[in-house]
Amino acid sequence: MSTSCFSLLILAALAVPSPIAVVAWRPWPHHFASSSNATTTSIVGGGASGAAAGLGTMKKYEGSSEFVKLRYHMGPVLTANITVHPIWYGSWSPKQKHILRAFLRSVSASAAPHPSVAAWWSTVRLYTDQTGANVSATVLLGAEHSDRRYSRGRALTRLDIQSVIHDAVNARRRPIPVNPRGGLYLVLTSADVAVQDFCVQVCGFHYFTFPAIVGHTLPYAWVGNSATQCPGSCAYPFAVPPFAAGLRKAERPPNGDVGVDGMVSVVAHELAEMASNPLVNAWYAGEDPSFPTEIADLCEGIYGTGGGGAYTGQLLVDGESGAAYNMHGVGGRKFLVQWIWHPYLSYCSGPNALDHQ
């Protein structure tokens, strides 16, 4: 099963040997067990901060590795126009929905200023199927469904997420359309909803629905709002976990909502993996499809040049608000989005990389 943060490769404290293997990172408690020697470094021209011990002189620290064996396993990628269907489970404010909708609309917004979310998606598009067809350039915001009544309760299992999708596609009023070819079903749970493994192992995950539950086989993802449960883990670097207090400071979120701004990068993570590995039989590293390491897993926690471990990499900073971001979207929105693995360059890449300027 594909999960965000589910099969992390452990980075020992903040010291990085050379050469390195690719490391995905989130601030789970074990990363700080021996971090007393961590150092905090200011980013030139940005004001963002992070631990950057042991970087040495490595030119491509941000995930580069000759040891990564990302392979194509002959399954489909999403080559047809992609339509994302958000399913809002629980209590969501209009402002929170606007932030996430703006991000989804930004994926195909080629007119956004550089560095843009659309330019980030162009790396996802490099992944192809066995015919040579690329992941689609078109990502649309589709029909939505809201479940304000918590119909499946406030504590959900992983299979309950599929039941939420069943309810959305079978709703009496305005059911979400079923589109096995290009539809992506995105379940978003509010801050007062607990989900199995949330805040312990995962911030989000993707898989495909079972016909026995939903009636169809559909690629889907779940992402939770961590604002009141584990912002220091799942909304990092906009929040810092208590056990890391004093080691680094939290960054200011670009849209003013720690939980939702943190969700943006997790949503991006899952979208990239759903597009390149929708049925968990296309692009991934490792030999076990039950625990694949996918194109976003390889770069988790990396947002800019030099990133890796507890260090986000070099970020941009809004001159008025002081918020940290690395990509532009529609309507003047700014977002912080993790990088993804570049299939030809064999390292983590994003449009804000210094060698892309």
Automatic annotation (TrEMBL):
Keywords: Apoplast, Secreted, Signal. InterPro entries: EXORDIUM-like. The keyword Secreted applies. One of its GO terms (cellular component) is apoplast. It is found in: Secreted, Extracellular space, Apoplast. Residues 1-24 form the signal peptide. Coiled coil: none annotated. The keyword Ubl conjugation does not apply. It holds the Pfam family Phi_1. Belongs to the EXORDIUM family. This is EXORDIUM like 3. It comes from Canna indica (Indian-shot). The lineage of its organism: Eukaryota, Viridiplantae, Streptophyta, Embryophyta, Tracheophyta.
